[in-house]
Amino acid sequence: MLRVERLSKAFGGVQAIRELSFALEPGRIQSIIGPNGAGKTTLFNLISGVLAPDSGRIWLADRDITGRRPFELARVGIARTFQNLQIFFNMSVRENVMLGCHRHLERGFWRCLVRSPKIARSERACRERADEILRRVGLAGDPDAPAESLAYGALRRLEIARALATEPRLLLLDEPAAGCNARETKEIDALIQGVAADGVTVVLVEHDMRLVMNISERILVLDHGERLAEGTAAEIRANPAVIAAYLGSTAAGASDAA
Fold first, then answer.
1. Which of 60, 78, 18 is CA-nearest to residue 7?
2. Is residue 38 part of a domain?
3. 29-58, pLDDT tens digit by residue?
4. Euclidean distance between CA atoms 117 and 101, whole angstroms
5. 78 contacts 172 by C-beta, under 8 angstroms
6. Is the pLDDT of residue 251 over 70?
7. Whether the model pTM is above 0.70
8. I need a surface site. Which of 10, 29, 106, 144 has the fewest CB within 10 A?
9. How many CA atoms lie within 13 A of 113 on its CB side?
10. DSSP letter string over 198-242?
11. Is there a domain that residue 107 lies in?
12. Which residues span the domain enclosing 204?
């Protein structure tokens, strides 16, 4: 589904991503973890077109998407959420999700000006699709409520709902459980697994290791922008290099001794 080849990105003298290569199988959940500053969000920004790489290539299936802009990547099936919530608080819950449907809407200046039957049907289908997605993420209670009225965990699910409205093949989730309590994290856990079960490939950046280990089929570990390790949850949990990167070599040595 996704192939990254020798990807690099620097900011001044800081090499955020260095000669990174990996591949994702379709329909799976893969997590990207690593200490603070490992390059996880920079990698997401490169894949989603927020940043352009200095070198290397990114492939979606057999399509070279290197350096493509975010709206172009949305057209070929990539959607993402952000570490910091990007919700339109002055709009309703339903309207936030309808925004994600925009690329599927009928358009045209004159048709919109006179509100042709085709435009009206398209908008009605968009509204129905938004309501369907809200039911899927557990937010169907009051779709006309202002988004600002939702609890924090519900806002996290609303952002995922808007990304799903673009009908992605690849969904990038940047810390979807950040700031959530245990119940909210459990709801997001179930939602992510449901999305993957529907055939969407999910890539997750997350600091909640319990969530990562519970749902990930593969885990990629970054350290200083480089690939440190890759494997199943059990393999990563037992990897001495990963333990050292998170805890420091002294702590890792003490752990081995224990």
1. 18
2. yes
3. 999 998 888 899 999 999 999 999 999 999
4. 18
5. yes
6. no
7. yes
8. 144
9. 3
10. TT-EEEEE-S-HHHHHHH-SEEEEEETTEEEEEE-HHHHHT-HHH
11. no
12. 2-88+153-257
